[in-house]
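DUF6082 family protein
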Amino acid sequence: MKTAHAVLILAGVGAARLVQAGQHNRQRNVLRAVQVHQEYLETLTSDSTLLEISVSPEEDLTLEDHRALVHANRLICILAMKFRLGLLSEETLRIQARKIMERKWFRTYWARYGGFREFEAQDRIDRRFTAVFSDEFSVYPEDEAVREESAA
């Protein structure tokens, strides 16, 4: 093998390692951000004063209602992280979303904040995630009262 070929092969291997290192770094950053967010939500739900401060004056929620919505947010965030990291396929995510939407508080959460999650979606993965959850939320037309309450 000529020296030029060997150099090209080494350059290719080096480039591949740089790409892989970048992907691992992004994954570590996602994991750390989710960990910090989950710790914050745990602190929020365990401290009534912080929970009370976090309720927007426009939202007519009791502390227990807000706590239930924060718990819904926690699980949805975990699923979003797993989907982003490739630990859930779109099909598996849809199964999870369908199961979650069987519970009133998750439907209430999505009715209130699903639009915001769609607005803040940064890339195709976020958009796909919110589309799956919105699709599964729309299966429950009997929740018009939840939708109207959230719009108020």
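thats it. The chain has one domain: 30-151. The helical segments are 3-46, 48-54, 63-84, 90-100, 104-120, 124-137, 144-151. bye
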